[in-house]
Amino acid sequence: MVSVYIGVFFIAIGILVKKFPNLMAGYNHLSQKEKENAIANGLPTFGCAVFVVMGLVSISGYFLGIWLDQPGIGDGLGVMVTLVGVVVLIVFGNRFTRERTR
Prior knowledge:
This is DUF3784 domain-containing protein. The chain has one domain. Helices cover 69% and strands 0% of the residues. The chain has helices at 2-19, 32-41, 43-67, 77-93. Helix 1 (2-19) runs antiparallel to helix 3 (43-67).
């Protein structure tokens, strides 16, 4: 059941990041031009999408564990989803601040 709570927490963070991009780590240290590029290129939308997917994977892992009759599957999934999500945000999120693409 903890995986469901973690998933709901990730989805809530995703919605908050979409509305308040300052919640993302490192966003306040960007220059004004980089902040404008990040907004124009859709960094808050990307952050929201990553967090929502992280939440949905965490929730679906819990129900997959129940369906397969192995509830232990969802136990470590929260940590794994967090680690993979952070890597995706760091690696691909940097591309949104460089140049204006739109």
